[in-house]
Amino acid sequence: MFAALRQPLAHAVAPASPKLEYLLTETRGRVALVTLHRPKALNALCNGLFVELNQVLKEFDNNKDIGSIVITGSERAFAAGADIKEMKDRQFIENYVEDFLGHWTQITKIRKPIIAAVNGFA
Predict the structure, then answer these.
(1) How far apart are CA 14 and CA 117, in angstroms?
(2) The CATH number of the domain where 107 resides is what?
(3) What is the pLDDT of residue 103?
(4) In Å, how far are 6, 24, 111 from 70, measured between CA atoms?
(5) Domains of the chain: total
(6) Does a structural domain hold residue 81?
(7) Got the DSSP string for 5-73?
(8) Which Gene Ontology biological process is one annotated for this entry (predicted)?
(9) Model confidence, pTM
(10) Domain of residue 77, residue span
(11) Is 5 part of a structural domain of the chain?
């Protein structure tokens, strides 16, 4: 169904930040495609990835030319889950007080439809 999104691009969208470390973005018509791009970590959801994800989702949400957003994974996995390496040396109270997972809830504020095109491990 989403194979058409992986065809040569009609045009790419450059987010406001000059460089994204953990994501790839592109558009086809009114659909924005966001690809999680941490293949060596099976796209584990780290803090930096969520900062970037929230940034690009907000930009696409505010773009009148975009009607929906598709999130997919790169290479072998959609996402391996939370990147536990970031949490292994932290105590529960640190995570709670610092709202360590606060970035995870920002995605719920996006008004446009978000579709997960799950591929590989999830």
Answers:
(1) 21
(2) 3.90.226.10
(3) 78
(4) 12, 12, 13
(5) 1
(6) yes
(7) GGSSPSB----SSS--SSEEEEEETTEEEEEE--GGGTT-B-HHHHHHHHHHHHHHHH-TT--EEEEEE
(8) fatty acid beta-oxidation
(9) 0.79
(10) 12-117
(11) no
Separation of alpha carbons 69 and 46, rounded Å: 21
Q: Is residue 73 part of a domain?
A: yes
Listed residue (112, 119, 92, 99) closest to 35, CA to CA: 119
Whether 116 contacts 37, CB under 8 Å: no
Separation CA 93–CA 113 (nearest Å): 34
Residue 94 lies in a domain: yes
Q: Report how far residue 74's alpha carbon sits from residue 68's, in angstroms, rounded to the nearest whole number.
A: 19
pLDDT tens-digit series, residues 50-89: 999 999 999 999 999 999 999 999 888 999 988 888 878 8
- Identify the H or E element spanning 117: strand 114-117
Closest CA to 33 of 51, 45, 1: 1
Angle at 61 between CA 113 and CA 52, to 5 degrees: 105
